[in-house]
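Before relying on records like the one below, remember that each one covers exactly one chain. Contacts with other chains, cofactors or solvent are not represented anywhere in the record.
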Amino acid sequence: MSSTKNDRVELRMSSADRQLLESAAEHVHETLSDFIRSAAVQRAQNVLARTAITLMPADQFDGLLHSLDVADPAPKLAEVAALPRRFERK
């Protein structure tokens, strides 16, 4: 699925960085623009994917799961649950 590319982004870089990118793009038979765009899009996808994941050590994760299995006292919740219901199912 190809879309028309109308937007532009310009950036400044050192000559050494440009030569490095041009050389890499040449090796994979891509234009410099395609090479930079695909690398930037891939990096953006990785960054955004990481925002949807919480990483933690295994022992911390096990502790979290264990804490979900142990009920905490919730006197306010018990008090509200004991009140008469406003609506009844029929």
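The CA atoms of residues 79 and 85 lie 12 Å apart.
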